[in-house]
Amino acid sequence: MKPLRVLSLIFPFFLTSPLLFGTDSSLIPLPVLFSEPEAAAPKISPDGEKLAYLYPENRVRNVRVRFLGQKNELTITHLEKRGIRHFFWHPDSNSIFYLEDQKGNENFHLFEVGLDGKNPTDLTPFENAKVQVIAVEPSNKKFMLLALNTRNPKYFDVYKLIFATKKLELLEENPGNIIDWVADHNFEIRATQALMPNGIGAVNVRETVRSPWKPLLQWQLEEDNVKIVDFSPDNKSLWLLSSKKANTTRLISMAIESTQRKVLYEDPRYDVAGIVENPKTYALEAVAIIKDKTQWQFFDPQMEEYFAYLKTIHSGTIEIISRNYEDTVWTIRFSSDMDPGTYYLFYPKKMKAEFLFHTNSRLLAYQLAPVKPIAFRARDNLLIEGYLTLPRENTKNLPFVLYVHGGPWTRDYWEFSPVVQFLANRGYGVLQFNFRGSTGYGKDFYNAGNKQWGKKMLDDILDAKKWVIEQQYANPHKVAIMGFSYGGYATLAALAFYPDEFACGIDAMGPSNLFTLFNSFPPYWEPLKILIKKRLGDPQTDSEYFTSSSPLFAADRIKAPLLIGQGENDVRVKKMESDQIVEALRKKGQTVEYLVFQNQGHDFLNPANRLQFFEAVEVFLNKYLGK
Hints:
Layout: H1 30-34, E1 40-44, E2 50-57, E3 60-67, E4 73-75, E5 87-89, E6 95-100, E7 109-114, E8 121-122, E9 131-135, E10 143-152, E11 155-162, E12 167-172, E13 178-183, E14 189-195, E15 200-205, E16 214-220, E17 226-231, E18 237-242, E19 250-255, E20 261-265, E21 272-277, E22 284-290, E23 294-298, H2 301-313, E24 317-323, E25 330-336, E26 339-347, E27 352-358, E28 371-377, E29 383-389, E30 398-404, H3 418-425, E31 429-433, H4 443-447, H5 456-470, E32 474-484, H6 486-497, E33 504-508, H7 514-519, H8 529-535, H9 543-548, E34 562-567, H10 575-587, E35 592-597, H11 607-624
């Protein structure tokens, strides 16, 4: 597993599935929508004989193992507070690795547990440190490569974890500017991505681990986007996602010795989103582009045949979750706007698929709302794409929610969202939209959001509201704004800077003060601050912009009712961000409901907290938006 190259796929891709058109049009109980999945993320062992997947023991996600061809199963982890989100097989197929943090602090440790579930071992037992997995593959049963910030909390060094002894060996020290270490297929670190103090990004390479480093590619951080994907199968070239000399991010190959560049795939409007590689040969097999929905470009005719067959099994988008080393058995996820996940085993050589399980079979009984891709023009004529969801029983003059995505440097997808389905099921229209600064639409669109928090990015939100009203979907007097993280910030900004626009707002983990946000980032974000200054801004040189874009300094203008949810242990948007605006609002007698969740970080991974929050959202919207 090399997480930075195996993009097959890092994003969930979705198409329509007919399986979840139930007949029950009644209200869907919140536990049905927001409890942990019944089963998820099945991963085949490297030897192809076992299956591991996430299973809700103790009401949180734990790892369960099934021996294929046998009936016996065993849950091998027993977490109780926060469930597991990331796990993977040992190359010898006899144990499982998983990542776990403490109460949402994001200082993940790497654990190993045998298939008997006894005596899990913390392999990185370092206080206030975080582990990242660089490379672990079935081809190497001796060690894996990790990045750890134990030497200096700001920087990640490279370590070898030797399986037999469980000992760590330091291989490379971070000079202070490297944000990505990449190993070749021989498990040698031969590429890095760095951010330079002068605002230059750089990919550096070396011929061997004994050779000196040399620059392969450099770019201006405020202009271009570059990310290392992987080494070519022969280790002589590097595959990159790059927007240099183009608007969209292209998949390119650059020879390490000659620096000769070749474009492997590009789209004129949309960025390359992910690739599929062969698990044994590392050959490029397919490339994904996410437009309103996902499209594929196949490089291997056999892979195209496999996808054609799988589409006869299920009409949803195909996502390859895992493949064994010999490539004889895969785990496949099908999903759609109304299907959170249907999983199959697939035997490619036999062209045979076997049903495994649904992520949430309880939803099969209910009628869900279809999600429709839409587009509109912002006031400066920039094309904004998004997704419209309307209740099945009514489509006009609705109480409406603008659901603003987090990041902001990410995007919304055409996918199943429990939040969206919850809102539509309660009679609200929902609009998700990719405002300027969102990813996936080329660098011009991405860069249009630079230093535009509370400015043009907020204009896009107001233009989205105008669009749903003009289309007669929304009741002009009953439009709410809601979001998590950046979406929470956008909620606060909209209510503060345009106090008459929205009937109410819901903010979860949203920053209120750009100064305190910037100065409270985790220490290991230090190398990223060079890039953040280009995108968000610099509190020293952009102080006027930071002041005018911080909702806290305009809190006295907020008059719409507000609900705020905050994780006590959030390290990205610290609790002070919510505390300070709640204090300011309560001093002026403004209506604000404030929920602080224990054992919670920048997320709602604790299912009890998640359920409690959406119970509060339901009551809040019914009170202030109504139907």
